[in-house]
Write a structure and sequence with these properties.
The structure is a single chain. The protein has 433 residues and is an alpha+beta fold. The chain is 36% helix and 23% strand. It contains 12 helices and 19 strands. Helix 3 packs antiparallel against helix 6 and helix 3 runs antiparallel to helix 11. The N and C termini lie close together (12 Å).
Length: 433
C-alpha cells in the first residue's frame, strides 16, 4: 500500500506540478546529495518557524518555483557541464539539410576536435508495423454472442492475454473503443486507435511504437485468439490479426558505405545523435559535422539567454497572486543589471522588463572584431552568478512564499531542522495521508 501511495504521489507530482523533462544533470553522486543535505541543515539552523497558507495555489507555486529553478540549472549545466569552469565548452553539430537529417553532438568537448565530418544519403526510413482492422458499420450490433472473450498479443518475445466482456447492447464501435483503452492502458509498446471513414464505418488500428524489425524476425507483434483461454472470434470479427503495413528498417549510406537501422534515431561514431527525417533525392547527400568555436559560443549564448528569460517569465507569472515572487523578480533584475554594460557591449541587451534580448548584428560584429573574447570573462561571471542563484532558489523555494513567522530561534543555541525548507515535499502528501 505504501509503495502504491508513493507511486500515485510521484505521478501526481509529475503531471500536475512538474511537467518537464529530465536530463543527465538530474542524476547525482552520493557526495553531491550529501552536500545538498548539509546545505539544507545549515540553512535551517537559524531559520524561524513559520506557517504557510494551506491552499492548492500556494502548493503549486512553491513546487513550480523549485522546478523552474531546476530547469534553469539544467540549461546552464548543458552549456558544458556542472563545473563552473566548463561553462560554454558545449559543442554543437551542424547539418546541411534539417529536413533530411537532424543531428545533436553527444560527445565531450575533447572529442569534438577529432569528430569527423560525415556525408549521409537516406534511401528509406524505418517504419512501424500497422494492423488495420475491418471497417465495420459503427452502430451495428456486434456479430458475436454476449460472453467473455480474449485474444493474445505477442510482442518482444512476450505474450499478453486480453480479456473483456461483450454485452448484448454493444455496438461495433463500443467494442473497438473498449479494446483501444484496454491495449493503451497496458502500455506494452502498441498504440491502438479507432479510425472512422466519414460514412458511418469504423476500424481498430494497431501500431507498434517501435519501428523496424530485428534480424531473424518478420514482424514486431502478432494478434491471435487460436489458443486463448476464453471465447475466440473477436480477432476475425474486427480483422486486427491482419498486417496492413510490414515494419521496415531505415536504409542509408554514411560516406558512401551502406548501413541499416531499426530506428530513425541512432548514434554514429559515438558522438553524433542522428535523426532521419526524410528521403534524399538521388545523388544528393546531407553533410553533418561540428560547428566552429565561434558558432558554438554564439549558440551557447542564445541558449543561456533563452533559459534566463524563461525563468524570469515564470517568476513574473506568479507576482499577481504571490507578492513574494516580486522579491525574486527584483533579485533577478539586480543580478542581470550588474552585468548590463559588458553584456550589452557584446549584443546581449537587458530590456526594461529585465529579460535579455540578443542583437544579432551587434553579436556578429563583436565576434568579427574580437570583442566577444575580450568580454568573455564577464559573460562567465554572469553565468556563474545565475547558476548560484538558481541553486539557492531550488534549495529553498520557501523563501519566496508568503508565510507567517511564528517564532525566531535563539541564535547560537538551537538544533538544525533539515525539513523546513523541504515543506513543499510534504505538500505532495496532503491529498493522500
Amino acid at each position: 500500500m505504501a509503495d502504491m501511495t508513493t507511486l500515485n504521489i510521484y505521478n501526481h507530482y509529475l503531471t500536475s506540478y512538474a511537467p518537464k523533462g529530465t536530463t543527465s544533470f538530474d542524476t547525482h553522486k552520493k557526495s553531491e546529495l550529501r552536500n545538498i543535505y548539509n546545505s539544507i541543515v545549515k540553512l535551517n539552523k537559524e531559520s524561524p518557524l513559520f506557517l504557510l497558507r494551506d491552499n492548492d495555489e500556494t502548493k503549486a507555486y512553491a513546487i513550480g518555483l523549485k522546478e523552474n529553478a531546476r530547469e534553469l540549472q539544467s540549461t546552464i549545466s548543458s552549456l558544458g557541464g556542472l563545473e563552473e569552469t566548463a561553462f560554454f565548452s558545449k559543442k554543437a553539430a551542424y547539418t546541411t539539410n534539417e529536413d533530411i537529417v537532424s543531428v545533436n553532438y553527444a560527445g565531450t568537448a575533447e572529442e569534438a576536435s577529432s569528430a569527423p565530418a560525415l556525408s549521409i544519403e537516406v534511401h528509406s526510413l524505418a517504419s512501424p508495423q500497422v494492423n488495420l482492422g475491418h471497417f465495420i458499420p459503427s452502430d451495428s450490433p456486434v456479430n458475436l454472442k454476449p460472453e467473455t472473450y480474449s485474444f493474445d498479443l505477442g510482442i518482444n518475445d512476450l505474450n499478453y492475454e486480453f480479456q473483456f466482456q461483450i454485452r448484448e447492447s454493444d455496438t461495433a464501435i463500443d467494442v473497438q473503443n473498449r479494446l483501444t483503452r484496454l491495449i493503451n492502458n497496458a502500455d506494452i509498446g502498441i498504440h491502438a486507435e479507432v479510425l472512422e471513414d466519414g460514412i458511418g464505418n469504423s476500424s481498430l488500428k494497431l501500431t507498434s511504437q517501435k519501428s523496424g524489425v530485428s534480424e531473424g524476425k518478420e514482424h514486431v507483434f502478432q494478434v491471435s485468439d487460436d489458443q486463448t483461454s476464453k471465447l475466440s472470434g473477436v480477432v476475425d470479427y474486427l480483422g486486427i490479426g491482419e498486417i496492413n503495413r510490414e515494419p521496415s528498417n531505415a536504409s542509408f549510406t554514411v560516406n558512401g558505405k551502406e548501413h541499416s537501422a531499426t530506428s530513425n534515431n541512432f548514434t554514429i561514431e559515438k558522438v553524433y545523435e542522428v535523426t532521419l527525417n526524410g528521403i534524399s533525392e538521388e545523388g544528393q547527400s546531407t553533410e553533418i559535422g561540428i560547428k566552429t568555436d565561434v558558432e558554438n559560443l554564439t549558440e551557447n549564448l542564445r541558449h543561456l539567454a533563452g533559459g534566463y528569460n524563461q525563468f524570469l517569465r515564470s517568476a513574473m507569472e506568479y507576482t499577481a497572486k504571490h507578492p513574494k515572487s516580486n522579491q525574486l523578480v527584483s533579485e533577478m533584475w539586480h543580478l542581470a543589471g550588474n552585468y548590463a554594460s559588458p553584456l550589452s557591449d557584446m549584443g546581449l541587451n537587458i530590456t526594461e522588463d529585465g529579460s535579455i534580448k540578443i542583437d544579432e548584428s551587434m553579436l556578429q560584429h563583436s565576434i568579427k572584431e574580437g570583442k566577444l573574447h575580450e568580454g568573455f570573462e564577464h559573460i562567465k561571471d554572469f553565468t556563474k552568478a545565475l547558476y548560484r542563484k538558481s541553486g539557492q532558489v531550488s534549495l529553498n523555494p520557501m523563501n519566496y512564499v508568503d508565510k507567517t513567522v511564528v517564532s525566531y530561534k535563539n541564535p547560537g543555541k538551537n538544533y538544525p531542522s533539515p525539513y523546513i525548507t523541504s515543506a513543499y515535499s510534504g505538500m505532495l502528501f496532503n491529498s493522500y495521508c
